[in-house]
Design goal:
By secondary structure, the chain is an alpha/beta fold. The N and C termini lie far apart (48 Å). Helix 4 packs parallel to helix 5 and helix 5 packs antiparallel against helix 10. The protein is globular and about 60 Å long. The strands form two sheets. The protein has an eight-stranded mixed sheet, with helices on one face. A six-stranded parallel sheet has the order 3-2-1-4-5-6, sandwiched between helices. The chain has two domains: 5-142 and 313-334, Rossmann fold; 146-307 and 346-353, Dihydrodipicolinate Reductase, domain 2 (2-Layer Sandwich), CATH 3.30.360. It contains eleven helices and 14 strands. It is 31% helix and 25% strand. Belongs to the Gfo/Idh/MocA family. It catalyses: D-xylose + NADP(+) = D-xylono-1,5-lactone + NADPH + H(+). Its EC number is 1.1.1.179. Residues 7-137 form the Gfo/Idh/MocA-like oxidoreductase N-terminal domain.
């Protein structure tokens, strides 16, 4: 058996999501049935060398630390020849600038969601990646779960619930404004839409945009409403709801996201069809169960369980490793065209509701 391809990662920023990502990277790939690719962290950048070293000591096993270099500068990490791919884990308002600098330095990049603040920034990153001939992807980790792939097959190929009629998506998590001030500040691109609404839009796209009859066309109707936070002068959104109508497959989708309350555990995504319904219970960013209710002589319920040997971030990392190994510059499952479309949908929602961020957050660099 050939040795696995090992992708060497540079980690930019050392917050909670970076910690989860690295802990998944250093797990044994065989625990999830993967033998063709592996991962190694070779560099970590933070605001100081001490902070980067602390992150290394706390997240990477002792026997893997010898070849990990701590940096106090993102730019220095981008120059490290040992790095095969840079993972951007800064707050949302910094994704675009950090990814742009990494790409211009010639790095492959996996950038946390939301990819950028607007579609114009997303298009710019895609353009620079093409010019530099490097790999680029938004880290929407849920998209790469085996459960999600099964969900789409059941829905779109096997047509388990018949013709899809309606989709309900609710991705809401109570956010304590005192403990998570970043999400209540426009200067850091806060609010429910860009932080939590990525998942609302994800399941909308998986069910409607990817429907075979839709042929990856945009929705025919988009109607958005937003409730602003009264807690700060920034007036970021605490709750946002969106109705999309997809005429080709004849589907209406109702999506909502909120920082004011949690989604009921029993149902985050409900897809109703002519033969029954499919439900994804909590949590839709890390789903572990598909419930299928089929109509007939009484309601026939089937439950499909999927264990996750870790957080689940390793599946997107595995996809990136295979893409870079095979010389690809974007991922087939989540290409840049779809990433840009997702940001265009966000832009339309913000346009209809008047949600704006400061100019220095929204701008595109020359």
């Amino acid at each position: 058996m050939a040795a696995p391809f090992t992708l060497r990662w540079g980690i930019v920023a050392t917050g909670g999501i970076a910690e989860c990502f690295v802990r998944d990277l250093v797990t044994d790939p065989s625990l999830r049935g993967v033998t063709d690719v592996a991962h190694q962290v070779v560099a970590v950048a933070s605001r100081s060398v001490d902070k980067a070293q602390t992150f290394i000591d706390e997240t990477i096993p002792a026997d893997m630390r010898a070849h990990v270099t701590p940096y106090s500068s993102y730019a220095d990490l981008y120059k490290d020849p040992a790095v095969d791919c840079v993972y951007i884990a800064t707050p949302a308002s910094g994704h675009y600038a950090c990814a742009l600098e990494a790409l211009r330095a010639g790095n492959n990049v996996l950038c946390e969601k939301p990819f950028t603040v607007n579609a114009q920034q997303a298009r710019h990153l895609a353009q620079v990646a093409k010019e530099k001939n490097v790999f680029l992807m938004e880290a929407v980790w849920t998209r790469f779960f085996p459960l999600v792939k099964t969900f789409q097959r059941m829905l779109h190929e096997e047509k388990m619930i018949g013709r899809v009629h309606r989709v309900f998506v609710d991705f809401s998590v109570y956010i304590d404004p005192e403990k998570n001030k970043r999400l209540y500040q426009a200067s850091t691109a806060g609010g429910a839409l860009l932080d939590l609404g990525v998942y609302m839009n994800l399941w909308t796209l998986l069910t409607c945009y990817h429907h075979p009859e839709n042929k990856r066309s945009p929705p025919d109707v988009i109607k958005a409403a937003m409730l602003r936070s009264p807690l700060t002068t920034d007036l970021v959104d605490e709750s946002t709801s969106v109705i999309t109508v997809w005429q080709k497959p004849n589907i209406m989708c109702i999506g909502t996201t909120s920082m004011m309350t949690d989604t009921p555990k029993e149902c985050l995504i409900r897809v109703q069809g002519s033969k029954g319904e499919m439900i994804i219970p909590i949590h839709a960013s890390r789903p572990e169960k598909i419930i299928v209710n089929l109509e007939g002589n009484g309601m026939n319920t089937r439950t499909y369980n999927y264990d996750i040997p870790g957080q689940g971030l390793f599946w997107e990392a595995d996809a990136v490793a295979r893409d870079i190994r095979d010389g690809k510059k974007e991922d087939d499952l989540y290409p840049l065209e779809e990433c840009i479309f997702a940001m265009e949908l966000m832009d339309e929602i913000r346009l209809q509701t008047g949600l704006k961020f400061p100019d220095d957050v929204e701008k595109v660099q020359s």
